[in-house]
Structures are given as structure tokens and as C-alpha cells.
Amino acid sequence: MTTEYATSADGLAWTWHGTALSGTPGRWDARGTRVTTVDFGEGTVTAYYDGRASAAENYEERTGVAAGTDPAALTPVGSGPLASSPYHGGGLRYLDIVPLPGDRRRLYYEMTQPDGSHALVTELR
Length: 125
Description:
mainly beta, four-stranded antiparallel sheet
């Protein structure tokens, strides 16, 4: 699982720019990197992504962060995930960040619960 980067002016014709993010061999995200939300800052791109080390961690991906100056070339930040659940496999994935007035943000993500089920969670920051 990798994240590919493409752009389109009309949503019909696409220009592919290549692989934006791929797993790091031997690390927590070796099996997959799926970008879920992106923040374009002044001269920087910050992406939050779901990662897993192996096929056995399917459904229990954890959230990592990657950055760069070009959305077509992102590099993982740090040596491990940014966030994970404390329960049953650590799944915390599908993060989305919605900017709100006054520098506030609404976060949405899926998180593994104590019984192994998954719940949609939201928080205001």
C-alpha cells in the first residue's frame, strides 16, 4: 500500500506525479502508507497517514506523519507512529482534520475500542 500523487484541473483528466509516500522497510509502516489528510503550509506539506508493518495488522493501522516541500515527495517524520489506540492492536486510522474559525480544528478518526470493535471518534482542538 503506497500513496500516489496526481493532480487534475477538472476531475476527469489526471497528471500523475509518482509515489508520494511508501513504507519504510523494517519499520512500523513497512507494509503500507495511506495518506488520509494533508495540510499545505507556507512552503511545507504535512500529511497524516495510516501505516502498518505487516498484513496481520490489517484493520489495526496506526497514524503517522510525513512532511516535505513537494506533495509528490513526502518523508516520514520520527521513528514510529504519531498516534495509536491503547487497546487491542492499537488501531487509530482514517484521520481527517477540519479547520474551523479561530485556529480551532475538528479531528475525526477511527479507533480500536477495548472489546476490539472500532468506533468513529471526534475531538475539538
